Amino acid sequence: MTVTPFTPMASLLGGALIGLSAVLLMWATGRIAGVSGIAARLFPPYEDREFAGRIAFVAGLVAAPVLVRLATGSLPAQTIAAGTPLLIVAGLLTGFGAVWGNGCTSGHGVCGLSRLSVRSLVATAVFMATGVATVFVMRHWS
After folding, report:
1. What is the pTM of this model?
2. The domain containing residue 52 runs over which residues?
3. In this structure, is residue 1 part of a structural domain?
4. Can you give the pLDDT at residue 25?
5. Phi then psi for 104, rounded to 5 degrees?
6. With the C-alpha atoms ordered 55, 12, 5, 85, is the resulting torsion angle positive or negative?
7. b vs e for 73-108, b when ≥16 Cβ sit within 10 Å of the residue's Cβ?
8. Is 3 within the bounds of a domain?
9. Which region holds residue 116: left if phi is over 0, alpha if psi is between -120 and 50, else beta?
10. pLDDT per residue as tens, the chain (142 positions)
11. Per the structure, how many domains does the chain have?
């Protein structure tokens, strides 16, 4: 089992930046910073007035590792123990869950909970419980 290092300052800074970004997006556009919703609206039908902002948002997600690499000279080590078929199934299930749950972890977990949304509280509890159950099953029954 891989031990994850305890990084309270980096985690605090990352959380603060996520929160600040969510607040700035809400202030500037009146929209919730849900990654699945932003990415889904990159496909037709287009809302022209917000398309550039959605592209910029997704480009920022892609550019973040590049900026980390430029700033530090390396990327954090990552180990993915699953094979490609399992990752494809997991990605499809995550996408289905985001559509079925009408949002994703960023939309419900960050923005919805901060707005005291009961629907987001239920959604966050469900995907956190599902994550815990999945880790348990994968560690003990595989």
Report:
1. 0.68
2. 8-140
3. no
4. 84
5. -125, -170
6. negative
7. eeeeeeeeeeeeeeeeeeeeeeeebbeebebbbbbb
8. no
9. left
10. 667 788 999 999 998 998 898 898 889 888 888 888 888 888 888 767 778 888 888 898 889 889 999 999 998 877 887 889 989 998 888 888 887 888 887 788 888 888 899 999 999 999 899 889 988 998 888 6
11. 1
Note whether residue 16 is domain-resident: yes
Cβ(112)–Cβ(120) under 8 Å?
yes
Question: And the tokens for 55?
Answer: 């592209």
Could you give the angle at the alpha carbon of 53 between the alpha carbons of 48 and 59, nearest 5°?
A: 125
Q: Choose among 131, 96, 126, 82: nearest CA to 108.
A: 126
Give me 99's structure tokens: 């559509």
Tokens at 47, concatenated: 């809302």
What is the three-state SS of the chain? CCCCCCCHHHHHHHHHHHHHHHHHHHHHHCCCCCHHHHHHCCCCCCCHHHHHHHHHHHHHHHHHHHHHHHHHCCCCCCCCCCCHHHHHHHHHHHHHHHHHCCCCHHHHHHHHHHCCCHHHHHHHHHHHHHHHHHHHHHHHCC
